[in-house]
Amino acid sequence: MPQSDLFGLEMLWKLESANLADKADAMMLFVHWFLVRNGFRNVGVGDDKTLNNAVDQSELLPEGWNGNNKSYALRYIMNNELYILHGTLSNDTMIVNLLQAQSLQVSNAAFNLDKTITSFNDSSLTNAVVSIDDQITRLQTELIKPLCEGGSKSSSTQTLISSSPSPAQVNAVPAAGPRRIEVLRPSGLLLPFGGVGRGDLNPLGGFVGGGGGGGMLMDPMNMRPGRADPFLPGARIDPMGPFPPRVQRPNPNPDHLPPPGYDDMFM
């Protein structure tokens, strides 16, 4: 970052150097300067979320801002919106939060004091802050940008997709495609052997359900188009029912027992 962006830092450091008690105070002074440099104005201490437009706005730190050097709370205003800066010391780490009071969006950044601030009683804050350009970049990207350029890092927006179809989808004409052919069955006829393998389970497949025939090994009712005889040739069965007369078959009749010694090779 160009050195011109550090305008006002030395003056603020000179004004508050006598009030600094430790590195935590120096860190919060540095954050305050950065906010003021970006258009924020201080309107007092505390975490009250109500905004009084009659309060004085200042570039300086308010009286008593570091009364508790373990926890800091400062109020700022920018573009008629109230922001609250919190600083909390945890071991050697300063956790800085910036809250937008109206939307309750919050951003945060954490700094190790020993690695960020070399000394709180140095004659110049630019020398007291380690790699000051890098620290300014962190404050910009982690503290300011989430609130002022795209919302909070700690909150996310979820897009809810309605499961109900839109009117355009309801009235849409379905795209052309292969048409499904429905098989019509006689009304009132129950098919207890539906599904895959019906032909293997339904002995009446030749009459009921249409197509496929029965699943019996020797189907006596092989009613297929073009057959004059509804029975298998040589079937060993005498079906009963309203069927045409049996065709006279030549001897030997397969229903008769074989003669004695039929399978004796020496006869």
Q: How would you describe what is shown here?
A:
With 267 residues, this protein is an alpha+beta fold. The chain has a domain of 141 residues: Protein Transport Mog1p, Chain A. Helix content is 21%, strand content 14%. A hairpin with a 2-residue loop joins β3 and β4. The radius of gyration is 47 Å and the shape is rod-shaped.
Largest sheet: 5 strands, antiparallel
The CATH architecture designation of the domain at 9-149 is: 3-Layer(aba) Sandwich
Alpha carbon gap, first and last residue: 120 Å
Structural class: alpha+beta
Low-confidence stretches: 150-170, 181-191, 206-210
Give the topology string: H per helix, E per strand.
Answer: HHEEEEEHHHHH
Share of helix, binned: 10-25%
What is the class of the domain at 9-149 in the CATH system? Alpha Beta
Sheet with the most strands: spatial strand order: 1-2-3-4-5
According to DSSP, the number of beta strands is 5
Please tell me the overall pLDDT. Answer: 74
Number of helices: 7
What amount of the residues lies in strands? 5-15%
CATH topology name of the domain at 9-149, in short, is Protein Transport Mog1p, Chain A
- The gross shape turns out to be rod-shaped
Rg estimate, integer Å: 47 Å
